[in-house]
Amino acid sequence: MRGYVARKVLGAAGTLLFVMLFNFVLFRVMPGSPVDTIARNQRLSPGEIQALIADFGLDRPLPEQVPGYLWDTVRGNLGVSYTSGRSVVSVLAERVWPTVVLVLPATIISVSVGVWLGIHAGWRRGSGTDAGSVGASLVLYSTPEGWLGMMLLVVFGVWLGVFPLGGYSSSPPPEGAAYVADVMTHAFLPVVTLALAYIGEYVLIMRSSMVEVTHEEFLTTARAKGLTDRDVRRRHAVPNALLPIVTLIFYSFGFVLGGAVVIESIFNWPGLGLLTFQAIDNQDFPVIQGVFLLSSFLVIAFNLAADLSYGYIDPRVHER
Amino acid sequence: MAAGSELVREGIPRSARAAARVRRRRAFSAFRRDYRRSRMGMIGVGILVVTLAVALLAPVLTDQRETQEAFATGPVLAPPSSAYPLGTDLYGRSVLTLTIWGARVSLLVGFAATAIAASIGTSVGVTGGYVGGRTDGILNAVANWFLVIPWIPLAIALASILGPTLLNVIIVIGITSWASTARLVRAQTLSVKQSPFVERSRALGGSEWHLATRHVLPNLVPVILANTVLAIALAILSETTLSLLGLGDPSSISWGTMIYEAFIAGAISGGQWWWLLPPGLAIVLVVLAFTMCGYALEEILNPRLRARSDR
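^ Those are the sequences you sent over. The predicted structure of the assembly is below.
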């Protein structure tokens, strides 16, 4: 077990190092190097441009820049945003909470509903429930989430007028309990959109995991013992079918930041996603780099958590 | 060899190559029979044939000049009417005309990006799986890295550096989405490499090149085919995502850039649903069609899935 953990942690550290080097190469060697983009920025004076270039160490040869860059990144010095002039880390930090408010409920909803539907579809394979959930999941999977959000906005925001057209809260924001209700009203449509965007994947994977389990001999044994169909499903089939799903949930936590980019841009939700959208628009490369590094870090961290939890839940894994 | 030539009779193929040809023709007609039985696959093919026809016939069905803002003749932001069945956009262009022309770019991106991803993925997967050793270790690490890295931030970083042109959109999607193909192809290569018929051919003196191109590669085709069809669906969705973030090519009309334009122009608060609905529905329909075809292919061509459904 200890060897398994060490191997996984080392692997994650290696991937992280590769991410940082990739980020270095990407933004320095590619056309549109930082020097060009800094110099192109008309908001900065020539003196400020020189200072920024020296600050990043961009005036030195590339190989010499690598150790300094790595050390800066590890310390959390990701540079300065071109548009606001503030450090990238502080710009990122103030956008984390709104994204969590959006992504956490959306993940909880899509996982619980998706897994529930998947269990019942897989258990009654070929039934109406099965065909319905698979069909709906495929359609949801094929729907661009940003467009789905727009259509929900047109229907519920413009036609029915029941939800606001975007933003985090009304302005001026109400006080106390009314503020929480206000934020929840604003969060409703983006959370539903995100949840719908992810639900299909959970249904399909849970269903196929369930179908796989229904062929297992231990279910025949359970039935032979005289258990009811419901007990066979709940006590024997579901726990085994859930194994791969646990990993998937951890895994998808790392990816939600990416999904939030589009949804936050559509709903004008002031989280990391909208920050990214604005950074693209302003060619604010330090912020884009920061988002890339942060989301890669999240994915690697959650992947490690998934691997470790899997090793814990299923002892067969680390014996391989 | 002399003993072999005595066996040549009528109806029996003269050479190994001819034998292979006959075998493949038979396999293909069996495959066609199986595919026709799949309702999901046939619906998918039906939708795709219609979409492809519309995309190819775009110059016949409509006047390309109508897609240019300067030549737009219709009223501004008009809801659907008999003259403009899907209404018009901010510049007075027919949304129907735009949607028809958008099919070309969206499908082009889907096919071209997938072609890039499939070639990289197949070469990496075959090389790694066949050569093995350190080469395999390195290639596998790179592929795993691409699998781990979140797609949207990576694509944003690449696309914002390269700049918004159609070619760059294709390149970005192509080079960010090959890793799953590589992994699949590598696994399949490993299993084919160890199969008895490869061993037999090696025992008969087949060279490595002969083994790789005549035995391993042909046996990878089914797996790659199903995977590629599914990848086209993903690539079209990816193009939409990039376009919605403003990273698409503003000068070429795709379904994604149409939605982005409508969004930027305030079609949501203006309630101009006819501008938003058609391109989005077109994406859903086409992606769904590719996905259905992909699943149908997978079920027929993947021997593992087939064995399971027979049980």
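The interface with chain A takes residues 144-145, 148-154, 156-158, 160-163, 233, 237, 240-241, 244-247, 256, 259, 263, 268-269, 271, 273, 276-277, 279-280, 283-285, 287-288, 291-292, 308, 311 of chain B (CB under 8 Å). DSSP finds 14 helices and no strands in chain B.

Shout if you want it in another format.
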